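Schema walk-through. Below, the input block comes first and the output block second. Nothing else is stored per chain. Lengths vary across the set, and this one has 137 residues.
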Amino acid sequence: MRTKQVRPDKLDYEYELYISREIDETRGKEFILFDFRTKKVFENFQYIINVISKVDMERKELQFNVEGLSAPRLEISKTGNASYQYKLFDFKNIEYDLKLLKYAKGKILYKIKISPKSIKITKEPASSFIKIITEEN
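--- output ---
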């Protein structure tokens, strides 16, 4: 008798991107934190998300290319989501184009508006491999 094959639940998206306004205590400067995390929780390692970032402040473009995962260089294993953080200093309170890519293909375009009191998504695609979470939602 064969046993039924169990498959994991299909996720609506693979990654979550938390965008928040933070303060660097050592510099005393404000920055925007882009905190990428996998939706999946890993049991053996806390992997690192490989992200290539490209910022063009003149064109008001922020681009992040998610390239996959790599194992941490630690001897002690730790469970949790894979993660990557990018700190954007010297930002302006304006609207930015946020381009997200996965393996350098399938460009997904968002628009985010940074104001003195909040960060809002002003344009988002119909479907995406990533869910963006800001201070507003």
